[in-house]
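Dock magnesium ion; give full complex structure.
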Amino acid sequence: MADTGDVLELYTANAEATMGIGRALGACCVVGDVVALDGELGAGKTQFVRGLAEGLGFDPRQVSSPTFVIVQEYDRRNPSDRDRAGDAAEVLVHIDAYRLRSAEDLASIGWEGDGGSMREGAIVAIEWASLMGSGLPADHLSVRIEHEHGDGRRLSLIAHGRWVPRMAQVRSALAEAGRDASS
Ligand code: ADP
Ligand code: MG
């Protein structure tokens, strides 16, 4: 993996801890960012996006897997949240690629090329990102979640493109949030 950029390995013992990592990451995101999640059903991808939403200043209770609609967009709780984290992103675009079968399916939700206008003013979180094919932008942070024993999960954050020089910032945000991040 060394040739794909910086890798950060984390362990969480419960759902709240996974959400906490998402929350810390949300505070590091800037407009146009893509967070690409992979992991089997029940791994905690949606849980992670809930934390991400909160870190961006969005209400995490809005977040659910858009399995059937493929895409959901969340807005800010209220306008005063605008000076919070997330570089004032107006929307969180939440995609679930599980049911995508073709580039036409992607186009049908408005995702052209590597996202195009859907990334304007937005942060994008994608579940089952590996199913996006060439629709997945080269610039993304990959988050892989794997089951460990019981409620334990192994998380790998893998930086691609513009995320590579930002991994130091992500590390310190996680450390600040009380997570034990080691590479
Ligand atoms: P996915 O979107 O990957 O299918 P969800 O986030 O919807 O998964 O569901 C994950 C489930 O696993 C939730 O019910 C959550 O409470 C539970 N869970 C238990 N331990 C963890 C953990 N360490 N991290 C994330 N979720 C966990
Ligand atoms: Mg999900």
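Observed: The two ends are 12 Å apart (CA to CA).
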